[in-house]
Design goal:
Elements: E1 2-9, H1 15-21, H2 28-36, E2 41-48, E3 52-59, H3 62-77, H4 81-84, E4 89-92, H5 94-104, H6 116-130, H7 136-155, H8 165-178, E5 212-215, H9 219-230, E6 236-239, H10 243-252, E7 256-257, E8 268-271, E9 289-293, E10 310-313, H11 315-321, H12 329-380, H13 386-415, H14 421-431
Parallel strand pairs: 5-6, 5-8, 6-7, 8-9, 9-10
Antiparallel strand pairs: 1-3, 1-4, 2-3
Amino acid sequence: MNLIVVGVSYRTAPVPVLERLVTSPAEVPPVLAQLLAQPYIGEALVLSTCNRVEVYAGVSAFHGGLTDIVSVLAARAGAAPADLAPHAYVHYDAEAVRHAYRVTTGLDSMVIGEAQILGQLRDAYAMAAEHDATGRLLHELMQQALRVGKRAHAETGIDRAGQSVVSAALNLAAVASSHAAGPHATDSEPAGSHAAGAEPVEGRGVLAGRSALVVGAGAMGSLAMATLRRSGADPLYVTSRGAERAARLAELYDATAVTGLDLSTVDIVVSATASSGHVITPADVTGPVTIVDLAVPRDVDPQVAALPGVELIDIERLGASLSADGGLSADKAAVEGIVAAEVEAFLAWLRSSDVAPTVAALRSRADDVVAVELRRLSQRRPELTDEQRADVARTIHRVVQRLLHQPTVRVRELAAGPGGDRYAALLRELFDLDVPSPGAVNGVPEVDS
């Protein structure tokens, strides 16, 4: 079983393509079922966030597995595989491990170092495991990827900026709204009082004097509400299809839960729902307002951006604004070093674990040979007592185990190094061992994540 990652992200595809691929939690189980029904896929996991959709899979052959995954994703996007292929990226074996680690450490994120991806990957793995879509390979990869992500955040300053997609988007909103007074900017904190790039949105008071409405009371909506409150926006409102969830979120952040959309009463709107259609259309916008659309598929009709006085910040615009590394070059280099070392450690484990079935098969072959010879001895020397037979059996087993000990220890050591797979293959060839391909196994030690 080999590891492959096939994905589409904001870097490789326009938002309309990404929108068609985004998979909600409710849609993940049938997608997993479709993947596992393919001939070359033995394990699968789907990671779907606002800026990437990725399939991690254990496959029996590279080209066959790639074709299977692309066909499932293309069908979901309503496109031909050939049309989707230019927007996809592929990582295989060692590079797939490296990519997984770069994802969990935040190196591959739109906002470098953001920690949200750890929770998103953990949820994706839990979903796959719940539906029996993971085996030994993906189980170990996910456990180690989560551990590496936590290690990078603990040992480097990669997340010292403290930004997330939400805070980065609101930083743009603060700059945008500073150029024109919103409908409810206060006299004590004029809307133009914060120059572009003056301080990050997490700073208290950056959005003081701006009123804000959050549309959606899910995880992203909750993060938006928390960020708005820390940045001084007030008053705050929240609306959601789930009135109870909106009320709970409003209570947590001293906000007001409202029904319906009235954008004329606020300076900033943050929309983060799981809706499959547009939540905000041109008809909903009646005056100047800054709108942050954090949803994929998009909550806001793109035509809203053409309305006078409207600033629309979506994932596409946010991605274009975050091309710089934010002064994190040294930290990025440190994390890349961690990733490189951890990739080698994982590959060593993989090579070592791949030889285990061969070693087990060799020992099983030895046990079979001993059993046959003991039966022959019993037939030739029926006068031996049970005690004598037991002594002979113990002696033979001891001799065989001692003969096998050093070669099996050494082959494990050799298998852990580069090119180690050839030692297991040689052992199988020498002893004519029939070793089945390893499937899903239980009991792999888990890493606390």
